[in-house]
Amino acid sequence: MPAILDARGLCKRFGAVTAANEVSAAIEKDTVVGLIGTNGAGKTTFINMITGYLKPERGAIEYEGRDITALPPREITRLGICRSFQIPQLYGSLSVWENMMVGIGIVLANAGQGGFFARGRIWDTRPVPGYGRPAAEVAEHILERFGLADYRHRNAQVLPGGVRKLLDIALTMVAKPRLLLLDEPTSGVSAQEKFGIMQMVLEAVRAEGATVLFVEHDMEVVSRFAQRVLAFYDGRIIADAAPEVALADPEVRRHVVGRARAAHA
Amino acid sequence: MVLVALLTGGLFLPQWAMFIVTIAFAKALVALGLMILLRAGLISFGQALYYCLGAYAAGALGRFLGIADIFVQMLAGAAAAGIAAFILGFLLAKYRGIFFGLLSLALSMILYGLLVKNETLGSTDGFNILPSTLFGTRPGPAWVRYAVLASAAVVSLGLALVVHRYLRTPLGRLAPAIKDNEIRVEYMGASARYAVHVIYVVAAVLAGVGGALAATTVGHIDPDMAFWTTSGEFIFITILAGTGSVVAPFAGALIYEIIHTTAYDLSPNTWQLSLGAALLIIIVFLPQGLWSLVSKMSTRYARHP
To answer: How far apart are CA B51 and CA B108, in angstroms?
Structure first.
């Protein structure tokens, strides 16, 4: 299978802390990959380097055969890599519906559909790239898939934590990402709801054809939803295999799984 | 329809009231620009920079080229302000919050300083503007005020419509998002800095037209148009009006001018006191500005027709 993303020898240090030490990984198209590791192991640094928030000191990142190492976040987003955040990044003073519309407006403008000054009727007539349907239908479709339709008139600021999390992911979908990076999609969600939410998110995302990388601390969620696991420890990838193999690896058990269990106990 | 009402209504106004309404139009255009900046979370304490540039561009046309056509003056004001804002925007679009506000204030005070030192442009005294003409004709003395008022109404209405449209464009919708969360804006694939730059230029163009209009209405310009208290006046109007609609700045500016004129008439030495009291009352009782009264009434009417 062709690799959609190919990271080679990424290094990044913050003072004395090595957040990435020769990190290499090729992600195949149409897979769901789980990133595990204790806090500070380098998972979010990895995501931040892919999305252009951090520049690696050494190494290169190729996406669909194109070098994206030096690009800023917005350029990388335009190429089809989107991300959600550990702490949801929403437009707090706007309604759920307006949150979606802002995103769709950016997508329309970037696609050259009249640019930022397009007349008001573009919302009703122009098809949103990737979806081929007008803005309202696309927003409706995405909100429906994420179970957010009932919240459309609510302000993003006053939504419950789990719903904010879902909206954060739903927002990324308006750009129809080909590679989606989810940073702890189920953190702050109760243990009983985790599986349901993860199921819904992955179904919605996979239906649009996105390859998924997700950071997760709950090993049960990882083993159930990931097809492949990258285990991080001390800025390195110490295991890269199918979940049952990776989670049984002695080094992973010592540095990652054991600690996660201890933290849960 | 609004235009016809304004134009016929204007015919019956006494001369002094025409002056107030025209100046209100000029200041409302500046406030309209402040409103779209405010929607993106930016307060400019230096919008007088573009107001003054617009006025001096209009004045310079008459002084050096002998052109006094109202519409050419407004175009010149728009162009001068737009070009200056485009250049300064590269610096300002990087800043937010108090830094943006104070930097814009500093820039307007630089213009003030330059004008005060410039003898060709009349230094602190400024200079007089040629009597306004309209498409090459010079209206009779009884009609000059009305001609300026009518031109102001036409241009203001046109620009208000443009801004109203703008609020529904992707950029118009992006502005509140920039105010809320710039990180998300970048990660959705838009450049917040570019958007702020564009909004800043649009606001400056509006202020430039307002400045040119004020110049031709008053017939005289001086460096005080760039002084920081002038910028304060525009912020006053914007807060008084609220940001609910493009009509708000016009209503706000008119009410401001009426309070200003009445207060000055009643007590020439303490008129600022009355203005301050009016603003205090608005801030305490209508924190969203006067326009919130209108939107409240319209929602109430929608519920109980």
So the answer is: 10
For chain A, which residues lie within 8 Å of any Cβ of chain B, measuring from their own Cβ?
51, 72-74, 77-78, 82-83, 85, 89-94, 98, 101-103, 105-110, 115-120, 122-123, 171-172, 174-175
Q: Which two tokens stand for residue B73?
A: 């003056």
Q: Per residue in B10-25, pLDDT tens?
A: 788 888 889 999 999 9
Say which of B184, B190, B191 has its CB closest to residue A89: B184
pLDDT tens-digit map of B106-118: 999 999 999 999 9
pLDDT tens digit at each of 265 positions of chain A? 678 999 999 999 988 888 899 999 999 999 999 999 988 888 999 999 999 999 999 999 999 989 999 899 999 999 999 999 989 999 999 999 999 999 999 998 888 765 666 666 667 778 888 888 888 999 999 999 999 999 999 999 999 888 999 999 999 999 999 999 999 998 878 888 889 889 999 999 998 889 999 999 889 999 999 999 999 999 999 989 898 988 888 888 888 876 655 555 4
> Do strands A127-128 and A81-83 pair parallel, antiparallel, or not at all (unpaired)?
unpaired
Handedness of CA A248, A254, A255, A258 (dihedral sign): positive
Nearest to A106 among B174, B179, B180 (CB): B174
Degrees, nearest 5: CA angle A91-A95-A98: 80
Q: Which string of DSSP letters, residue by residue, matches chain A? A: --EEEEEEEEEEEETTEEEEEEEEEEEETT-EEEEE--TTSSHHHHHHHHTTSS--SEEEEEETTEE-TT--HHHHHHHTEEE--SS----TTSBHHHHHHHHHHHHHHHTTSSGGG--TTHHHHSEETTTTEEHHHHHHHHHHHTT-GGGTTSBGGGS-HHHHHHHHHHHHHTT--SEEEEESTTTTS-HHHHHHHHHHHHHHHHHTT-EEEEE-S-HHHHHHH-SEEEEEETTEEEEEE-HHHHHH-HHHIIIIIHHHHHHH-
Distance, CA of B301 to CA of B252 (rounded, Å): 23
Domains in chain B, please, with CATH? 2-303 (1.10.3470)
Strands A211-215 and A179-183: parallel
pTM: predicted TM-score of the whole model, two decimal places: 0.89
Distance from the Cα of B195 to chain A's closest Cα (Å) equals 9
Question: How buried is residue B85: exposed, middle or buried, by Cβ count under 10 Å (0-12/13-18/19+)?
Answer: buried
Coil/strand/helix, residue B232: helix
Q: Which chain A residues have a beta carbon less than 8 Å from that of B187?
A: 51, 73-74, 77, 82-83, 89, 172
Residues of B in contact with A98 (CB under 8 A): 173, 176
CA atoms within 13 A on the CB side of B161: 8
Which of B176, B179, B187 faces A77 most closely, judged by CB atoms? B187
Q: Do A106 and B189 touch (CB under 8 A)?
A: yes
CA gap A194, A188 in Å, rounded:
9
Structure tokens at B15: 């001369």
